[in-house]
């Protein structure tokens, strides 16, 4: 049997980062920047007011008191967006709004709350020190500063700074387009009636959601029946556009294994057993001229999801141009004894608590604990849904006593 780490290494060695493309910011959420983006100008581009109030010369209002206000004429009104070049004469003020350019000669802003709000003449009741409520040009970014390095995932704030630095588009690796195919004559669409011997197709729904959570775009196809020719025809139709294909089912030792039957003859897809539980039967390879990666995951629902976490998620990270490796683990104390088959790495489903974010608690001060859920069968989807972590038991360990520290993959 192939070791878990060897299987992941083979996948990561075969998969390539997607080519960067110029993406409009409206389409770039979740993409990964493939260029260093520098600001063409300072940000803010000009000195401006941080408050609604009056631009003044600080010296003119130094003597202002609550009971003895300074009265000054209001020479002009400067709203945000004002483009006129302005200069403030000594002994005058201009009304100014937040974000409006500071007139030359002004060196402080008096908030409207410190005044009577006058429009012809204003009574100022408090002094403003030089620099008060002024946002200086370049305070956020200097011209030429890199505001976003290559390799950054584009979230809302990152798209915001690109727009704020004047960019309409960015060179980025797009979200991989992944098609999820399930096989099995027993599968019927959720929401339709169930006959004897049938089950509702669930792997496709899980895997599509998992792809999206991993930063990909995913499309679920209706399950194909156990016919290799039909499977191959469906697959061929995808190879021009998909960046990756995930299948579930049809790869084990049964009489009807359409995925394995269809792909084995191509010679570019490896099928075999990986030393893990669940998820022992696995397949991976590259298809067509575009060398599209295909992950043929086992059909049991828990097995396919665990396989996704271990192999597909790191591969998608690599395709996005992000660091890729085995899932991160955290140590936790096992709340109950654990069993694992000799020679296989087990990924038992558990509930992790006492870790930031794992259970909604802040975990401060507490020690992480993990409790295996009831129902460790690879068909027990409800037990998987009740878990928030995978407990890793190494290949050479068959029993873990309650209270021992184990490594855990938060889901
Ligand atoms: N003689 C052997 N039998 C099996 C072995 C073995 O080594 N020797 N391995 C077992 C293990 S471990 C697994 S895992 C499964 C993997 O089988 P396949 O990948 O071929 O999957 P199927 O047989 O098509 O389905 C397995 C199971 O999962 C259900 N399933 C499949 N697709 C879906 C779906 N989209 N949604 C929900 N449920 C799905 C399917 O109905 C079966 O119950 O093989 C073991 N057998
Ligand atoms: O690989 Mo299977 O997952 O043990 O049911």
From TrEMBL:
Similarity field: Belongs to the MoeA family.
Classification of source organism: Bacteria, Bacillati, Actinomycetota, Actinomycetes, Streptosporangiales
Function: Catalyzes the insertion of molybdate into adenylated molybdopterin with the concomitant release of AMP.
Pfam family, one: MoeA_C
The protein's Enzyme Commission number: 2.10.1.1
Transmembrane parts of this sequence: none
Pathway the protein contributes to: Cofactor biosynthesis; molybdopterin biosynthesis
A GO MF term: molybdopterin molybdotransferase activity
Superkingdom: Bacteria
Required co-factors: Mg(2+)
Name of the protein: Molybdopterin molybdenumtransferase
Domain MoaB/Mog: 179-318
GO CC terms in record: cytosol
Enzyme class: transferase
GO biological process: Mo-molybdopterin cofactor biosynthetic process
InterPro entries linked to this entry: MoaB/Mog-like_dom_sf, MoaB/Mog_dom, MoeA-like, MoeA_C_domain_IV, MoeA_C_domain_IV_sf, MoeA_linker/N, MoeA_linker/N_sf
Reaction(s) catalysed by this chain's protein: adenylyl-molybdopterin + molybdate = Mo-molybdopterin + AMP + H(+)
Organism, scientific name: Sphaerisporangium rufum
Keyword line: Magnesium, Metal-binding, Molybdenum, Molybdenum cofactor biosynthesis, Transferase
